[in-house]
Amino acid sequence: MDNEDSSFESSEMLASFLTSTPLLSESWRLCDLANTMPSQGFVAEQTGSLGYLAFSGVQLVAGPDPTSARNLEPLLTSTNDLFSPLQHQIDGEEEEGQEPVMVHAGLLRVFLSVYSNPSFQNQMLKILEKSKSIVISGHGIGGTTAGLCALWLLSYLQSISSTISVLCITFGSPLLGNESLSRAILRQGWAGNFCHVVSKHDLVPRLLFAPLAPLTPQLHSLLQFWQLSMTSPHFALLAAKLPDESKAEIFHTVLASLNGLTQAEQGKKVNCGFSPFGNYFFCSEDGAICIDNATSIIKMMHLLLLSSSPSCSIEDHLKYGYYVRKLTLQVLMRTSFPPRELPESSYEAGVALALQSSGIACQDEHVAPPAKACLKLERRTGRTPNLNCANLAIKLSKIAPYRAEIEWYKASCDQSDDQMGYYDSFKQRGASKRDSKVNMNRLKLARFWDNVINMLENNDLPRDFRRRAKWVNASQFYMLLVEPLDIAEYYRTGMHRKKGHYIAHGRERRYHIFERWWKERPIKEEEQKTRSKFASSTQDTCFWARVEEAKEWLDNVRDESDPRNQARLWSDLDNFARCASELVERKEVSKDVVAKNSSYCLWVRDYEELKSQFVGAPQFPSIMDREVVS
Predict the structure, then answer these.
(1) What is the pLDDT of residues 262-301, one digit of tens each?
(2) Structure confidence at residue 80 (pLDDT)
(3) Which residues pair with 311 in a beta bridge?
(4) Helix, strand or coil for residue 302?
(5) Cα(576)–Cα(566) distance, integer angstroms
(6) Beta-carbon neighbour count of residue 516 at 10 Å?
(7) Are 137 and 169 in contact (CB under 8 A)?
(8) What is the DSSP track for 527-578?
(9) Could you give the 3-state DSSP secondary structure of residue 611?
(10) Rounded to an integer, what distance in angstroms lies between the CA atom of residue 176 and that of residue 148?
């Protein structure tokens, strides 16, 4: 099993990076400082081109009691598009079978309160002006505020195509949102931007798995103890005044809830409102392990808490400074291990070292075996992300003949004597073997690219996959070549009459994703040059869908008797005619668009004929006299 020794490679690399740089210790130092300044809510610091922002963990959750924050609310309905990339809607339609992105209600209000503070906004402007990288951190409640701040910042930077990198490091942070939030973060490729440091016994990251309403009085006392301890460490003596019965009741309620989650059958969806996201950095006195699989994270939270006690679980929330100092003084997951006890398999040795670093004794018969199983579960099924990517590259080369056959079909359609062009030839195709094969190739390519998206969203591909030029260019070439065929099939089969027009109701999700990849790529200088001949493929892949809508408008304007509706239709028609004419003028369309009998040219003739019947109507240059340059 030596070929499996990379099972923990990505997690170990991330954890080793954090412990071998000042990022972890500096983030904690600023969190500790922010905890002593609760009135300000955050502290900021600039070190060269690296900006730090840390949120205080001493903040009150909005609501009548601490348990009210366990309620989830939609993230996107009350935040004025601050987190718009996280929405799982496409042109207003929710993805089937998914609940909306939901977050911790009280803590969302805490973040929005900080965000609306002019002092925070001024500080962020300064950091953005000076930084190439930004590290956002927080302890406890400050950790969830940091998480929301990082999500907002990532959303903002994406909207302006900024190259500033963002890393969020939390210490003992409660859970933030539901599974839809976790999936949305994966979909954006942001999971690697989050590292949640969780000590072995800390109760806070586990609290929201449990029903808290019956424990309201106990939680009030517990929150007061934590907050007093952060602002004034000498108040830690108050720990002795917390009744042991209250500590035990909270501890066992959380432990029982985690036990219920982990006892669910494998593969069965657990009915739990909250879900972890990003990387979880479990630390103990013996080292640390880094896990990014949600199921493994929940199981490890349970197993580590099994070896704890009510007092330890409460006091551990205040010991992150101690753990950070220990971690920076030792090499992660390379603690002493008697050679005679090391398993021969490098994979099993990796599991054993990870188990020891988590602080679980191998001799513990109750915890060690399930912990080992949990660590093995963390190993991604099949190949690692980079190997998956290499395997996909091989598959991409294998589907090249399908793409080549469609290219040959396009060329033959464009040269055909019927002068209909690529789009209309496929839309009006017969039952020939050639047409059937092209349609089959279209479906095979769709399956390949849908699989690529599924792998990416399941975290089975490298996190920078969507930015790799090879895949951005390949997906764009696929979209330019094949989406016109999908549009043709949509209107050929009458789906527009059942569902509505293609752009709003029929466009496949993969095209929205590939379009975003293409827009986010670095633009080369040669792409900005003026074209001297028509493009090999129409650059607006939805062009033919716009033609189909314009055809319907033309039919409707003939029958419309209401002057206001008629004026609206003419406005839509004129706008399309103008935009289409400009595309043709700039030669951003394929020559099949200007083929004599294409849908577009037939539409232009009908449009100009109808337009000429209206006195004083503006006329657009006819494309019929344009020379087609091949």
Answers:
(1) 876 454 555 568 999 999 999 988 888 888 888 889 999 9
(2) 74
(3) none
(4) helix
(5) 15
(6) 14
(7) yes
(8) GGSPPSS--SS-SSTTHHHHHHHHHHHHHHHHH---HHHHHHHHHHHHHHHH
(9) helix
(10) 8
The answer to whether 358 and 314 are in contact (CB under 8 A) is no
What distance in Å separates the CA atoms of residue 54 and residue 33, rounded to the nearest whole number? 9
For residue 339, the model assigns a pLDDT of 44
In which region does residue 172 sit, left (phi positive, over 0), alpha (psi from -120 to 50) or beta (all else)? left
Instruction: Over range 295-324, report the average pLDDT.
Output: 90
Residue type, 195: C
What CA–CA distance (Å, rounded) separates 61 from 102?
17
Report the length, in residues, of the chain.
Answer: 630
Q: Using the CB atoms, write b or e for 201-226: b if 16+ within 10 Å.
A: bbbbbbbbbbebeebeebbebbbebb
Please report which residue ranges of 21-140 form alpha helices under DSSP H: 23-35, 105-115, 118-130
Quote the Cα angle for 525-530-536, to 5°.
95
d(C-alpha 538, C-alpha 544), whole Å:
9
Angle between helix 23-35 and helix 141-159 axes, rounded to 10 deg: 120
Closest CA to 601 of 353, 391, 424: 424
Residue type, position 297, single letter:
I
- Cα 209 to Cα 71, 257, 274, 276, distances in angstroms: 12, 6, 7, 11
Per-residue model confidence as pLDDT tens digits over 93-139: 344 456 889 998 888 999 999 999 999 999 999 999 999 999 999 99
Specify the DSSP class assigned to residue 79: S
Other CB atoms within 10 A of residue 84 CB: 14
Range list of H helices, 6-104: 9-20, 23-35
User: 195 pairs with which residues across the strands?
Assistant: 169, 279
∠ Cα 9 11 15 (to 5°): 115
Q: Which residue has the tokens 């969830």?
A: 144
The amino acid present at 337, given as its one-letter code, is: F
Strand, coil or helix: 283: strand
What whole-number distance in Å separates Cα of residue 353 and Cα of residue 39?
43
Closest CA to 605 of 535, 540, 547: 547
Report the SS3 class of residue 389: helix
Supply 39's token pair: 């009135």
Q: What is the spatial distance between Cα 101 and Cα 84, in angstroms, rounded to a whole number?
A: 11
Number of C-alpha atoms within 13 angstroms, CB side, residue 307?
A: 20
DSSP state of 315: H
